[in-house]
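Allow me, if you will, to draw on your knowledge of protein folds for a short while. The matter concerns a single protein, recorded as an amino acid sequence and a row of backbone structure tokens. Kindly check, if you would, that the fold set down in the tokens agrees with what the sequence suggests. You will find the record immediately after this paragraph.
***
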Amino acid sequence: MTDVAAPDSNAPAYSVSELAFALKRTLETSYSHVRLRGELSKVTHHGNGHVYLTIKDNKSAIDGVVWKGSVRGLGVRPEHGLEVIVTGKITTYPAGSRYQIVIESMEAAGVGALLAQLERLKAKLHGEGLFEASRKRPLPSMPAVVGVITSPTGAVIRDILHRIRDRWPCHVLVWPVVVQGDQAAAQVAGAIRGFNAITPGGRVPRPDIIIVARGGGSVEDLWAFNDETLARTVAASDIPLISAVGHETDTTLIDFVSDRRAPTPTAAAEIATPVLGELRVLVSDYDRRLNRSGARLIEDRRTRLVGAARGLPRPADLLALAQQRFDIAAGRLDAALGRNTAVHAQALLRVTARLSPQALGRQRQVKADRLSDLSRRMDLAAHRAPERIAQNARLPALWSRLNDAGKRRLQRDADRLTNLEKLRQSLNPERPLELGFALVRKADGALARSASDLLAGERVNLKFKNGDRDAVIDGDGVVHAPPPPALKPVRPKPTTPKPDQGDLF
């Protein structure tokens, strides 16, 4: 405060800031804890997490703010038109000369307001399609693992376990949560997400179905199950979920988004599991009906087979004609085989009569003469080829035009021709005859390779380089030349005079 006083008064003058902050301290001290009831309007959720709103009644209005750290602790979500009771402190906003309430907690003002908020939330979720029947998953008919989300100390879990044990003994996983109060909605949503996060086939079995259960109570007691976040978590669950909150007349928001609603927790256990005894009876009935149906089917097929067999001829009658034809053919088979053998024997005699060693020898001699002629011609050609090449005047010019590769190729061809000539000379069977040897052949044309191959008195043929001679093997192994054949008188050939030749006589 300033010490300067007005000329006509001794009261000191305040600055605007001094007065604004003095009023702020006075209000915060006098109204540090205020409970205020009214209807919300102008609700604004700022991007930084704060919530700005106005609380009004039929005559007045006051601005309010909920800081980011207090938003999560509110009992209800601030929405336009909601009647609430808020708790906080009165303060001022010095920059605008306005007073406002800093809200620390908020709750709905009565059942009517809660139901109105619930209806607005239901309309919102319904508009998003979360209540549609097409998105609800079918429940498993025979679950192996059942997950239950409820309080571990209440009577609800005992009723569910007892009912499941009587109907369908299976593995039950219990996720303990609180089912009433400010933390109930968050814990139930976390349990649902936890069951969905279990890996199939892991150490902890993954539930085939989830039951969210709670006993009956007032609207305020069951209000945690009307939470929007919990409803969206139930809708997003990959595991089919049954809602069993309250009694049959109680309805919560998760009843609309769950895959199935049960009127009571005990009814939820009955919906989730079949009756083992009934299944056994049903299987037995199916087995009995299957056996009866199979027996009737077999009997019907047997009757039809017997009826069809009556219209068929006897097998003996079908085979009698074929048996008779077989007997006749078998009787003719021996004679036919004998005649066939005789015909082939006569054909063989006719062929062997034309075969003789001399005929084979003549054919061999023809081939040998042809080979000798070809060898002689080849010798002549081989001797004349160099002479022709030497006499050719153009050969040196052509040789000079060839490149190195062509010359090497021509030289390789000449060497190959020389090697072939040497090979031919080495393979010539009559080459030893030029050295004074002779080939001894028996009368059948076979070559005699040793003295033991010849018999005394056997006629042989001796082939020399310049001719053949016949000989006879004597008893001591000496070869004698046969006597010369008797000379036959040579008759002069009659001559026929030419037509223009005259007669001397």
In short: Confidence is low (pLDDT under 50) at residues 486-495, 501-505. The CA atoms of residues 280 and 286 lie 10 Å apart.
